[in-house]
Design brief:
Strand content: 25-35%
Shape: globular
Distance between the termini: 71 Å
Radius of gyration: 23 Å
Largest sheet: 8 strands, antiparallel, barrel
Number of helices: 11
Helix content: 10-25%
Strand order of the largest sheet: 14-15-16-17-18-19-20-21
Oligomer: single chain
Number of strands: 29
Length: 530
């Protein structure tokens, strides 16, 4: 392609500097790598530049490798995808024991995400937590976000449990099986699973977080396995993508099987999440992809089979969005082949303000930034782009939330076909402190949640199994609901707590709901020391 290098260099121009972190990128046309380059520094301290052979943590891109190992064990007859989790792991809570391996691989289990649970139990990503403690945290949960196979719900817990299944069935470590079955046959010599964060990894870029004063090192101290523990290079990931396009005979069934989808029940809507790969649509063309995110690490693995095109981006700074950059690469290469961006009707733009859905405990803030609407939900800001003349889609990956104006509010539709209408609140209430102040026991998290007040301001302190955190701000929404903001650097998440009452009117418990933990009950503690 004429001037291809110049056009793609331009996409990464903001990171083509020797005073900031950056990214590595590889672009494939069919099985041929037609562009690859590094931008920025792998180490600000030592002035080391990023190259295509620089290693990065690829986070959740690991999940497709985990699924590939499960598929291979199924091909060998050592397990069935429909086997229940309880067949391999015991003891397991009753709600988890009957979950099939297939359900876990499709992110349709409804299990709470253990990374979210860590913050809710008083911990932080910068505090050392080992795999046994994380497994225990998952398996002592008493409920789920939804009934299995009825919806999509991204949960890293699914893949931590699958790691244990793989190791038990294979009789060897995940690392060894990964090397033997997948990495060695494809010559991916710079790729490995590194579960312990303190392990020294040669040629590994340093992760950074952008601040008002520059950059600081990102901290992450949790063990990661089949949910997100791999390190790799764009050169090695290009080998993996090349094998997907033209599979070697030994891996053909496995690699083709990764894209297999199932449908939710009873809706029969197809789940966009296959086996560690996500089906989506970008500018009118189908995509198969997956992203990765850990503090200071970001990655995107994007294939567009219809255009015979693939893009891989790895980054060592939180301020660079590989998904956005990968899509810009596609636009720079094949813009005439993509559908035009729709122009919305003037009345179809959601009005700024707070929107509330009482039954689910969902709160959405709509704002205008640079002339375009933006939605913030569960603490995550999302740019909205028009999908047609009356609907907007949240740019947050291939599991879009579609927004449209509804009478008296805002309609949101999820990728599993479910929809709800949120009412527009004229204002958030100024609920008196007595409504929520008290101590609450969270048996699934260990310890207590303590709501206090300073003047008219509510605050939350957490004392859980993984430490103490807070105070976190509590903002009333209605007389019976409030939003809690919890920071686990470098991420911020919000949760809604809704009050349940006894017949007498006294508070009996709080119901906690967030992006990856829903409907968790915290019981009110009554006692002399309250």
């Amino acid at each position: 392609m004429p001037n291809l290098d110049k056009r793609l260099d331009f996409v990464f121009r903001d990171w083509d500097h020797d005073d900031r972190p950056g990214a590595a990128v590889a672009v494939l046309k069919g099985t041929k790598t037609i562009y690859s380059r590094g931008f920025g520094l792998a180490s600000l301290e030592h002035g080391l530049p990023i190259s295509v052979d620089t290693r990065f943590r690829i986070a959740s891109i690991t999940k497709q490798f985990t699924c590939a190992l499960v598929l291979q064990l199924a091909e060998d007859g050592k397990l069935s995808l429909d086997d229940p989790l309880g067949k391999f792991l015991a003891p397991v809570a009753p709600f988890a024991a009957n979950l099939s391996l297939r359900t876990l691989m499709h992110n349709a289990s409804g299990l709470h995400d253990h990374l979210a649970l860590v913050a809710l139990a008083g911990g932080g990503f910068d505090r050392r937590l080992r795999e046994p403690a994380l497994n225990d945290l998952i398996l002592r949960q008493r409920g789920v976000n939804f009934q299995a196979d009825t919806a999509f719900g991204y949960s890293n817990a699914n893949f931590l449990l699958l790691t244990r299944v793989v190791e038990k069935v294979a009789g060897q470590s995940f690392e060894a099986l990964l090397r033997q079955r997948l990495l060695a046959p494809l010559g991916m010599d710079d790729t490995a699973l590194v579960r312990e964060p303190e392990t020294v990894v040669p040629n590994l870029a340093t992760p950074y977080v952008k601040t008002a004063n520059g950059y600081r090192r990102a901290l992450f101290a949790l063990d990661v396995t089949g949910d997100g523990g791999m390190v790799s290079t764009v050169a090695d990931l290009a080998k993996w993508m090349r094998a997907m396009v033209k599979p070697p005979p030994r891996l053909k069934a496995t690699l083709e099987g990764l894209a297999t989808r199932d449908s939710f029940r009873p809706s029969r809507v197809a789940n966009r999440y296959a086996f560690g790969l996500e089906h989506g649509i970008f500018r009118g063309v189908g995509t198969i992809s997956h992203g990765g995110l850990l503090p200071g690490w970001r990655a995107e693995f994007l294939r567009i089979p219809e255009l015979d095109l693939g893009v891989i981006v790895t980054a060592n700074v939180d301020a660079l969005d590989p998904l956005v950059q990968a899509r810009r690469v596609v636009e720079a290469m094949v813009k005439p082949q993509l559908a035009p961006i729709p122009v919305p009707k003037p009345h179809a733009t959601p009005e700024p303000g707070h929107y509330w859905h009482e039954a689910s405990g969902t709160l959405v803030l709509i704002e205008r930034r640079d002339g375009a609407p933006r939605a913030t939900m569960w603490g995550t800001p999302m740019r909205l782009q028009p999908v047609d003349a009356t609907r907007w889609v949240a740019v947050r990956g291939v599991f879009p939330l579609t927004f449209s104006v509804a009478e008296g509010g805002l309609r949101i539709e999820s990728s599993n076909g479910r929809g709800m209408v949120l009412e527009r609140l004229k204002r958030l209430v100024k609920t008196g402190p007595h409504d929520l102040v008290g101590r609450y026991h969270a048996p699934e998290l260990g310890g207590e949640w303590i709501v206090t007040h300073e003047g008219r301001t509510l605050e939350l302190q957490i004392r859980g199994d993984f430490g103490a955190s807070g105070p976190w701000p509590v903002t009333p929404i209605t007389a019976d609901a409030a939003e809690v903001t919890i920071v686990s650097p470098p991420w911020t998440a919000t949760y809604v707590i809704r009050r349940r009452r006894y017949d007498t009117g006294w508070t009996s418990s709080l119901v906690l709901t967030g992006a990856r933990v829903q409907n968790m009950v915290l019981k009110r503690i009554y006692g002399d020391d309250e």
